[in-house]
Specification:
heterodimer, A: alpha+beta, 7-stranded antiparallel beta sheet, 5 helices, globular, B: FAD/NAD(P)-binding domain, 2 domains, 11 helices
Chain lengths: 166, 419
């Protein structure tokens, strides 16, 4: 039984299955879709302008990525109703990567703001900085926040908190 | 007491009832939509999360925006009369629906009835469950998302179905701490994406755990949770004391079917559908002719399927009133049936499908029993059985005025005998 269904945290195997191969990771930003259960949902496919999220045969299909077509634009990050898509850019700098995450809290952070980076269990793993904030589409789209993180944590960081919990 | 006459009465203006009304009205059916709430949309008005489903339908839209859109369509539809802030009190043999409006008691007399009353929340037994601070998830959502009131500072969520997970997320968005989500089953009940979303925000989800007690003087001051063994008994020594001022129950829903009992529709207890549900066919018609159902009252599911099932009920009611041509009917029926099938084709729908299959098997045997008793010459004269709708004693009369006018509604062999 995967830890996904007992704790909500996907297993290492789950994550490996949605992470592109090393050579693709070294080439530029890519989307990773952490959607592991067949549920009736298809907006991610329709949000992609580049055909990187393949067409669904059945509404319950798990999304399939063609990373050769993905530009890392992050439109799918804002579109996913399950907030399960992230874009990772491991070419951001020598030591850092950039991660785009859906963020539905107020207030939105500001560019340059330091944050505590968290993993899939909500545990703080490092410090990061907000690099870009894309407001959601009106009237109620999901904002996308890009944060820089240590490169070694490119497949680990999946959240952030603005300030230390009081 | 005034009497309103109408072709179709729909009880409940949630996603199922509204979609039923819009579908029926699109075929020219004069429809009266009754809802006890002031605002249209049922539970949708509290749903601030984005919906799954088809991109071309409402997927990616938030429930509260769907409610707004649907409400606008209802208000602009000249075939729909809306009775909001109006409670349906009872349904009588002559087809009268008694309602309590803000102005007093009224009668509504309709040729057809669609019951889309939804569901109510289940309660859980534990010491301290009567303390202020113990809420149902629906109440928490109403407080936060309709009235803008935080229910407390720190919450223990009981149940990891989609409602428990989504309400936990909404609590976090409102700045409320969620101490834990406990789940008695060995696995999380709701969609993994919802679970991962709150887990990422640091909320522990503890399967095989439940609440042992809530305690406090005047209100909830804390709660004790513990682990369950394989026989669902708490394991002594595994207790954890959580400092919370709210215990939120999200342990499931059960169909709100009182009016259907009163109608004399055949009911059956089907756990997969959430409790007692009416027996109904593919057109959403119950065993009481002219009475249709849609949404959670027909089996606990979710809003996307409720909307499609509502359309099916509205179409069927319009068809039975002679408002839909054969060609349009078969096209629309196939379209909606295909949509429902698609929505239910994944593993998450296995339970609901097995419940529906069980219910249909029961419906079949009720119909067969009815056919036998109809063929039995001792019970009634054969000629009369073939042409008369019913004798009032053993067959409840829905849409009574209509079946008398047409004279053939009760003669079909598939008509079921009421309880």
């Amino acid at each position: 039984m995967s830890t996904l269904v007992t704790t909500g945290v996907p297993s290492a195997q789950d994550i490996a299955g949605v992470t592109p191969p090393e050579e693709r990771r070294a080439r530029g930003p890519y989307a990773t879709i952490e959607c592991f259960q067949p549920i009736p949902c298809d907006p991610c496919h329709h949000s992609c302008r580049f055909g990187a999220i393949q067409e669904f045969e059945d509404i319950n299909d798990i999304p399939k990525m063609d990373w050769s077509k993905c530009t890392g634009c992050a439109l799918c990050v804002a579109a996913c109703p399950g907030l399960a898509i992230f874009v990772v850019d491991e070419t951001y700098s020598e030591t850092e990567c950039l991660i785009a995450m859906p963020y539905e809290f107020v207030p939105l952070p500001e560019k340059g703001q330091p944050v505590k980076l968290t993993d899939r269990a909500g545990i703080v793993v490092a410090d990061g900085i907000v690099q870009r904030v894309v407001a959601g589409r009106k009237p109620a789209g999901t904002p996308v926040v890009w944060v820089s993180a240590p490169k070694r944590l490119a497949t680990v960081v999946r959240g952030f908190i603005l300030r230390k919990e009081g | 007491m005034s009497v309103r006459t109408t072709e179709l009465v729909i009880i409940g203006a949630g996603p199922a009832g509204i979609c039923a009304a819009l579908e029926a009205a699109s075929h020219g059916v004069k429809t009266t939509l009754v809802d006890r709430g002031e605002e249209l949309g049922g539970q949708l008005i509290k749903q601030t999360h984005k919906f799954f489903g088809w991109h071309k339908k409402s997927a990616g839209t938030r429930g509260v925006l769907i409610a707004k859109k649907l409400a606008g369509e209802v208000l602009n539809n000249e075939n729909i009369t809306l009775l909001n802030s109006t409670e349906a009190l009872g349904y009588y043999d002559d087809g009268t629906l008694l309602v309590e409006t803000p102005r007093g008691i009224d009668r509504v007399l309709g040729d057809r009835l669609i019951v889309a009353t939804g569901a109510s929340e289940r309660m859980l037994l534990f010491p301290g469950n009567d303390l202020p601070g113990v809420y149902g998830a629906g109440a928490v959502q109403t407080l936060m998302n309709v009235h803008g009131v935080r229910p407390g500072d720190s919450v223990l969520m009981i149940g990891s179905g989609n409602i428990g997970l989504i309400v936990s997320y909404q609590l976090l968005q409102a700045g409320v701490r969620v101490a834990a989500v406990v789940e008695a089953m060995p696995t999380i009940g709701g969609y993994a994406v919802h679970a991962s979303k709150i887990r990422r925000l640091g909320v522990p989800i503890m399967t095989r755990h439940t609440i042992k007690e809530a305690y406090g003087k005047e209100q909830v001051e804390g709660a004790v949770i513990w682990e369950l063994d394989e026989n669902w008994n708490g394991i002594p020594g595994t207790e954890k004391d959580l400092e919370v001022d709210v215990v939120c129950l999200a342990i499931g829903l059960t169909p709100l079917a009182e009016l259907l009992w009163q109608c004399g529709a055949e009911m059956a207890y089907i756990p997969e559908l959430g409790g007692f549900v009416p027996l109904y066919d593919e057109t959403m018609e119950t065993t009481r002719k002219g009475v249709f159902v849609a949404g959670d009252v027909a089996g606990i599911e979710e809003a996307s399927t409720a909307m499609a099932a509502g359309r099916m009920a509205g179409l069927s009611a319009a068809r039975s009133l002679g408002k839909v041509s054969d060609l349009d009917y078969s096209r629309l029926r196939n379209e909606i049936a295909g949509e429902l099938e698609g929505l239910r084709s994944g593993p998450a729908s296995a339970k609901i499908l097995s419940g529906i299959a069980k219910m249909r098997a029961m419906l079949q045997s009720v119909k067969e029993a009815a056919a036998v008793s109809e063929a039995e010459p001792a019970n009634r004269p054969a000629k009369q059985a073939a042409s008369e709708p019913t004798d009032a004693g053993d067959l409840p009369k829905a849409g009574a005025r209509d079946s008398e006018a047409q004279g053939n509604n009760g003669s079909k062999s598939e008509e079921a005998v009421g309880a």
